[in-house]
Write the C-alpha cells for this entry.
Amino acid sequence: MESPPFKVEKSFLVQRFAKLNFGSFHLIGYSVAGEETVVQVPEWNVCFDFGRAPHFALTSDIVCLSHGHMDHVAGVGYFLSQRFFQGMKPATVLLPRELERSVDMLLMSWRQVERQTTPYTLVPMAANQMYEVRRDFGIRAVQTHHGGPSLGYVLISIREKLKPELVGKTGPELVELKKSGVDIQYRIEVPMVAFLGDTTDGTVFEHPDVVNAEVLVTECTFFEPDHKSKAKHGRHLHVDQFARILPGLKNKHIVVTHVSRRTGVRRAQRILRKFVGSAEMDRIHFLMDFEGAADGGDMEDAGPPPADAV
Ligand SMILES: [Zn+2]
C-alpha cells in the first residue's frame, strides 16, 4: 500500500467541544463570541442556546434560548428538523416572549421549505417566570442586559421538606394532619446551574438564584483595555466589570463563556488572574480552556477576521 504524500497532523475542520465535570452533572459546549454559543447539561435534559446545533445538543428535550443573535439561535431549524427526522420527541423551546412570534414565523417557513411538519413547542418566558418541568425541577428566567430582548435561565431543584415543628411526629399522625388540611411540608428551591447568555453588568448579578447557583455560566467577552468601548457598544462584560462583580457572587463554580477570539482563552485567563488573584481563580473555569486552546492571534490566521461580537 502506498503511503500518503503527507501526514495530516490535525484538521481545523473538526470542531472541538468542551466538557466540564461537576460531579452530579456535566456541562458540554462551545462558546466563542460572535461565532457560536451552545451549552448543554445532559443530566438535566436541557441545552442553553442552539449555537449551530452541534450533534451532541440534539439529545436535549428542552432548549432555553437567551436572545436572538445568530451565534445563539442559528441552529434552531436544524435542531428541530433533525430531531423529527431521527424520530425523537418534539422539543420544547423556552425563549423571551418578545421573540416568540418571529421564531414561530421562522420555523413555519422552514416547514414550508422542507415540506415536512416538524413539530415544536415554544414557551414564551418573562423575567422571574418559572417553567415547571417536573414537581422537583423547574427553570426560572432572569432578566439579563443585552441588545434586544434577552433572558438568562436557572435550573432549580425543588425539594419538599417536613416543617421543622412536625419533626418527631409519627407517620399516622402526619397522615391525619394532612387529611385535616394542614400543610405539613415546605418547599425549598436550590439553584443548580445559572446560564446568562450574553449580558453586560446589571441587576442580574444580584438575583438570588444567580448569586447562589452552584454553577454560574456567564459571559466575559472582552479583556483588553482598548476593548472597553466594544464591550459597552455590544452590551457585553469587560474584565473590569467582571472583576468588580465577582466578590458578590457565592457560586461554587463560575464558567466563563463567549471570550472574543481577539484575545483568546489563555491570554484572557492570565489577564483575569491579574485582576482577581490566584485564590479566586480556583473557582473560575473558562469553558473553552481545553488542550490545544490557542493564544490570541493564533486562530485569527486560520480564518476570516473576527466579526465584532454580537
Ligand atoms: Zn448577543
